[in-house]
Amino acid sequence: MKLLLSVIEDISSLAIEWYGDYVKKIIVGGKSFEKADETEDTIYLLVLDRVSKISIYARGEIFSFFYNNAIKRKESIKLFISKYGTLPKIYGIILSPKELDYEIPIIEYLTSNGKVLLDRGEQNG
User: Fold this and answer.
1) Residue 121: what pLDDT?
2) To 5 degrees, how large is the angle CA 63–CA 52–CA 49?
3) Lowest CB count within 10 Å: 30, 39, 105, 125, which one?
4) Are strands 23-29 and 42-48 parallel, antiparallel or unpaired?
5) Could you tell me the pTM of the whole model?
6) What ranges in 1-125 are assigned the alpha helix state H?
7) Which CATH class is domain 2-119?
Protein backbone atom coordinates (compact mmCIF):
# COMPACT_ATOMS: atom_id res chain seq x y z
CA MET A 1 0.00 0.00 0.00
CA LYS A 2 3.04 2.27 0.16
CA LEU A 3 2.85 3.35 -3.48
CA LEU A 4 -0.87 4.11 -3.37
CA LEU A 5 -0.48 6.06 -0.13
CA SER A 6 2.37 8.05 -1.71
CA VAL A 7 0.13 8.96 -4.64
CA ILE A 8 -2.67 9.96 -2.26
CA GLU A 9 -0.23 12.05 -0.25
CA ASP A 10 0.94 13.84 -3.41
CA ILE A 11 -2.63 14.60 -4.52
CA SER A 12 -3.46 15.83 -1.02
CA SER A 13 -0.37 18.03 -0.89
CA LEU A 14 -1.30 19.66 -4.19
CA ALA A 15 -4.85 20.34 -2.97
CA ILE A 16 -3.64 21.79 0.33
CA GLU A 17 -1.01 23.88 -1.44
CA TRP A 18 -3.71 25.31 -3.72
CA TYR A 19 -6.61 25.74 -1.27
CA GLY A 20 -4.82 26.05 2.08
CA ASP A 21 -7.19 26.33 5.03
CA TYR A 22 -10.24 25.71 2.81
CA VAL A 23 -9.30 22.02 2.89
CA LYS A 24 -11.22 20.74 5.91
CA LYS A 25 -11.02 16.97 5.65
CA ILE A 26 -9.54 14.20 3.52
CA ILE A 27 -10.80 10.62 3.81
CA VAL A 28 -9.83 7.67 1.64
CA GLY A 29 -11.35 4.21 1.39
CA GLY A 30 -12.72 1.64 -1.00
CA LYS A 31 -11.74 -1.81 -2.19
CA SER A 32 -8.05 -0.94 -2.23
CA PHE A 33 -8.13 -0.50 1.55
CA GLU A 34 -10.59 -3.32 2.25
CA LYS A 35 -8.46 -5.83 0.33
CA ALA A 36 -5.08 -4.17 0.94
CA ASP A 37 -4.60 -4.20 -2.83
CA GLU A 38 -3.20 -1.07 -4.48
CA THR A 39 -4.67 -2.00 -7.87
CA GLU A 40 -8.27 -1.89 -6.61
CA ASP A 41 -10.54 1.17 -6.59
CA THR A 42 -9.86 3.98 -4.14
CA ILE A 43 -12.40 6.62 -3.18
CA TYR A 44 -10.89 9.97 -2.24
CA LEU A 45 -13.12 12.41 -0.35
CA LEU A 46 -11.94 16.00 -0.23
CA VAL A 47 -14.01 18.24 2.03
CA LEU A 48 -13.48 21.75 0.82
CA ASP A 49 -15.00 24.88 2.29
CA ARG A 50 -16.99 27.14 -0.02
CA VAL A 51 -17.84 24.66 -2.77
CA SER A 52 -21.54 24.19 -2.00
CA LYS A 53 -22.57 26.38 -4.94
CA ILE A 54 -20.19 24.75 -7.42
CA SER A 55 -21.67 22.14 -9.77
CA ILE A 56 -20.85 18.45 -9.39
CA TYR A 57 -19.18 18.57 -12.81
CA ALA A 58 -16.92 21.46 -11.77
CA ARG A 59 -15.99 19.60 -8.59
CA GLY A 60 -14.94 16.64 -10.72
CA GLU A 61 -12.80 19.00 -12.77
CA ILE A 62 -11.17 20.27 -9.57
CA PHE A 63 -10.22 16.74 -8.54
CA SER A 64 -9.01 15.95 -12.07
CA PHE A 65 -6.81 19.04 -11.96
CA PHE A 66 -4.96 17.74 -8.90
CA TYR A 67 -4.83 14.14 -10.15
CA ASN A 68 -3.49 15.21 -13.55
CA ASN A 69 -0.92 17.50 -11.94
CA ALA A 70 0.27 14.61 -9.80
CA ILE A 71 0.59 12.48 -12.95
CA LYS A 72 2.76 15.14 -14.61
CA ARG A 73 4.87 16.24 -11.65
CA LYS A 74 5.12 13.50 -9.03
CA GLU A 75 7.46 10.53 -8.93
CA SER A 76 5.00 8.42 -6.91
CA ILE A 77 2.67 7.92 -9.88
CA LYS A 78 5.57 7.03 -12.16
CA LEU A 79 6.65 4.37 -9.63
CA PHE A 80 3.07 3.08 -9.41
CA ILE A 81 2.85 2.79 -13.21
CA SER A 82 6.22 1.06 -13.44
CA LYS A 83 5.14 -1.53 -10.87
CA TYR A 84 1.53 -2.13 -12.00
CA GLY A 85 1.50 -0.92 -15.61
CA THR A 86 -1.48 1.35 -15.03
CA LEU A 87 -2.54 4.52 -13.25
CA PRO A 88 -3.99 4.16 -9.75
CA LYS A 89 -7.80 3.93 -9.75
CA ILE A 90 -8.65 6.92 -7.59
CA TYR A 91 -12.16 8.36 -7.75
CA GLY A 92 -12.47 11.82 -6.24
CA ILE A 93 -15.47 13.30 -4.49
CA ILE A 94 -15.48 16.93 -3.38
CA LEU A 95 -18.06 18.12 -0.87
CA SER A 96 -18.56 21.07 1.46
CA PRO A 97 -18.58 20.44 5.23
CA LYS A 98 -22.37 20.93 5.31
CA GLU A 99 -22.90 18.28 2.63
CA LEU A 100 -21.35 15.62 4.86
CA ASP A 101 -24.63 15.59 6.80
CA TYR A 102 -26.81 14.69 3.79
CA GLU A 103 -26.61 10.92 4.46
CA ILE A 104 -25.21 10.08 1.03
CA PRO A 105 -24.51 6.32 1.14
CA ILE A 106 -20.96 6.45 -0.25
CA ILE A 107 -20.10 9.26 2.17
CA GLU A 108 -21.59 7.32 5.09
CA TYR A 109 -19.44 4.34 4.02
CA LEU A 110 -16.29 6.47 3.88
CA THR A 111 -16.88 8.21 7.20
CA SER A 112 -17.52 4.82 8.86
CA ASN A 113 -14.87 2.68 7.15
CA GLY A 114 -12.37 5.03 5.53
CA LYS A 115 -9.04 6.34 6.72
CA VAL A 116 -9.09 9.98 7.83
CA LEU A 117 -5.91 11.63 6.56
CA LEU A 118 -6.78 15.18 7.58
CA ASP A 119 -9.48 16.62 9.82
CA ARG A 120 -9.54 20.33 10.55
CA GLY A 121 -13.09 20.27 11.91
CA GLU A 122 -15.91 22.42 10.58
CA GLN A 123 -14.81 25.88 11.70
CA ASN A 124 -16.18 27.64 8.61
CA GLY A 125 -18.75 24.93 7.72
Assistant:
1) 78
2) 70
3) 105
4) antiparallel
5) 0.93
6) 2-19, 31-34, 56-73, 75-84, 105-113
7) alpha beta
